[in-house]
Amino acid sequence: MARKWIKLWVAESLRGTIRFDFTPAERGVWYDLLALAGDCRQDGLIAPGSDEAYPLRWIAGTLNISPSLLQRTLEKCKTYTRIEVNGHGILILNWNRYQSEYERQKPFRAKKVTSKVTQKLPVEGEGEGEEEEDKPLPLKRGIDAEIKLPDWLNKETWDAFLEMRKKQKSPPTDHAIRLLIKELEKLKLAGDDPNEVLNRSVMNSWKGVFPLNKVREAQGNEKYQGNPRKSQGRLPDRHTGYTEPPYDPRLAAFAEADRRASEVAERESGSHL
Fold first, then answer.
1. Which of 4, 5, 147, 188 is most solvent-facing, going by the fewest CB within 10 Å?
2. Structure pTM?
3. Which residues of 194-228 are buried (b: 16+ CB within 10 A; e: fewer)?
């Protein structure tokens, strides 16, 4: 019976006598003969049946090699007692010794396949009169038994915020949801409408929530619009949801010094023209 694979012994292939007795082309033919023997009906016998042999020209054509290379390899294999050629075909000697692993694993593979099939087959009378247990449905994040939306928070607005975070491939965890709700509650006590806070975050693709009064102050600050570095107010970043770092006067001084040095260098270079 034809098999799907054959064994190739690593140590014998790399450091065995075949490495020195055969040329690279002849070694390739030998491995092809092993594969062809595994593809035939009888293990280790290269033949279409038990009473006839393949013509050498057919074997050479199947292996895509020249008949002379095949003939030379067969002669060497016979010399080193690797094969036996007779009227029944080409017999690979010691086949069972080197390829017995396939036969050893065959019962285990058959048992494995049988067990898989029997597990799927229904047993008569089994399960009759029994009601199928109701499996719990997966809970939607943010509205499970532990995390409930407060009455002052609109569900549609909250779902729109979660959908925006989902499209950003950054859905909040349960712990993050609790923190967001607490932050919205603080903003509500401070006088902000939490639903409007969420709408503002959704509109600007912010991952967090921010006080409305500070956002309006920063947006209406003319100094911020003219030169963002001179404004203490900072709008949250539309991608990360975090505010920018506060204004550092030392960095501004360094930038101003660089600007003045550049102006002096330009004047000096112009005077030499």
1. 4
2. 0.37
3. bbebbebbbebbbbbbbebeebeebeebeebeeee
Residue ranges of domains in the chain: 10-100, 155-258
pLDDT: is 37 or 249 the higher one? Answer: 37
Q: Which amino acid is at 246?
A: P
Q: Give whole-number Cα distances, 159 to 62, 150, 244, 264, in Å.
A: 66, 14, 27, 57
Confidence class of residue 235 from pLDDT cuts 50, 70 and 90?
Answer: low
Query: Do residues 41 and 1 touch, judged by C-beta distance below 8 A?
Result: yes
The DSSP secondary-structure symbol of 49 reads S
Gap between the Cα atoms of 132 and 270, Å rounded: 90
- Residue 269, classed as helix, strand or coil, is helix
Domain 10-100 has CATH 1.10.10.10: yes
Report which of 131, 62, 111 is spatially closest to residue 90, judged by C-alpha positions.
Answer: 62
Say which amino acid occupies 63: L
**Pure H helices in 64-122:** 67-79, 95-120
C-alpha 58/C-alpha 113 separation (Å) is 37
Element (H, E) at 29: helix 24-39
Question: How far apart, in whole angstroms, are the C-alpha atoms of residue 225 and residue 86?
Answer: 96
Comparing 1 with 140, the larger pLDDT belongs to: 1
Q: What is the pLDDT of residue 77?
A: 92
E strands, the chain, in order: 45-46, 83-86, 89-92
In this structure, what token pair is assigned to residue 173?
């965890």
Q: What tens digit of pLDDT does each residue of 148-167 get?
A: 889 999 999 999 999 999 99
Q: Which residue has the tokens 């009064």?
A: 213
pLDDT in tens, 165-193: 999 888 999 899 999 999 999 999 998 99
Q: Which residue has the higher pLDDT, 94 or 235?
A: 94
